[in-house]
């Protein structure tokens, strides 16, 4: 029998995309806590009947602007994100994505962005928590 930790009885679900361009991946920098983030965001309460990919498209448009063109792939990773400024943890599902074209226009949620290769060393301090950091390390093959 699995024992549930009471802290995880309530959580939010977030959909993110790991956009790849020329063997580099797009990372955003959060305005609030300066941690790394991916384009995407939480599913709204009213989106229960909307396909996940449509929700992800909405979130990416909000965070990167309407000029960015990309192709969504399959889900490639999942992890919890716990942060001090959230009352409940967020369960994150990450989709693979292929950047096609368009200029990025960040929302106020992010201060900057950069493209990182697998060879670039991402630091633990760049991420919200250890779970998220380890998920990226596994995916990027470090």
Explain the overall architecture.
- The chain is α+β, with helices and mostly antiparallel strands.
- The chain has one domain (18-140): Nucleoside Triphosphate Pyrophosphohydrolase (Alpha-Beta Complex).
- 17% of the residues lie in helices and 39% in strands.
- The chain is built from 2 helices and 7 strands.
- It has helices at residues 52-64, 130-140; strands at residues 12-21, 24-30, 36-37, 40-42, 69-81, 90-101, 110-117.
- Strands 1, 2, 3, 4, 5, 6 and 7 form a 7-stranded mixed sheet that branches.
- The radius of gyration is 15 Å and the shape is globular.
- The mean pLDDT is 86.
Give descriptors for this structure.
alpha+beta; Nucleoside Triphosphate Pyrophosphohydrolase; 2 helices; 7 strands; globular
Q: Strand portion, in percent?
A: 35-45%
Note the total helix count. Answer: 2
- What characteristic shape results from the CA principal axes? globular
Using the coordinates above, name the CATH class.
Alpha Beta
Order of helices and strands: EEEEHEEEH
Query: Main beta sheet: strand number and arrangement?
Result: 7 strands, mixed
Taking pLDDT < 50 over at least 5 consecutive residues as the criterion, the unreliable ranges are none
Distance between the ends: 33 Å
The name of the CATH architecture is Alpha-Beta Complex
Task: Specify Rg, calculated over alpha carbons.
Answer: 15 Å
Strand element count? 7
Mean pLDDT, all residues = 86
Q: Any idea of the CATH topology?
A: Nucleoside Triphosphate Pyrophosphohydrolase
**How would you name the CATH homologous superfamily?**
Nucleoside Triphosphate Pyrophosphohydrolase
The level of helicity is 10-25%
- Count of the domains: 1
């Amino acid at each position: 029998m699995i024992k549930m930790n009471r802290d995880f009885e309530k959580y939010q679900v977030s959909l993110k995309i790991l956009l790849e361009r020329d063997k580099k991946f797009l990372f955003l920098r959060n305005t609030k806590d300066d941690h790394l983030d991916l384009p995407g965001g939480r599913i709204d309460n009213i989106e229960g009947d909307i396909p996940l990919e449509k929700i992800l498209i909405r979130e990416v448009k909000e965070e990167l602007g309407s000029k960015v063109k990309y192709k969504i792939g399959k889900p490639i990773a999942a992890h919890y994100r716990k942060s001090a400024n959230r009352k409940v943890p967020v369960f994150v599902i990450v989709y693979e994505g292929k950047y096609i074209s368009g200029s990025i226009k960040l929302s106020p949620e992010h201060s900057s962005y950069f493209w990182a290769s697998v060879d670039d060393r991402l630091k633990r301090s760049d991420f919200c928590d250890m779970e998220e950091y380890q998920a990226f390390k596994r995916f990027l093959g470090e």
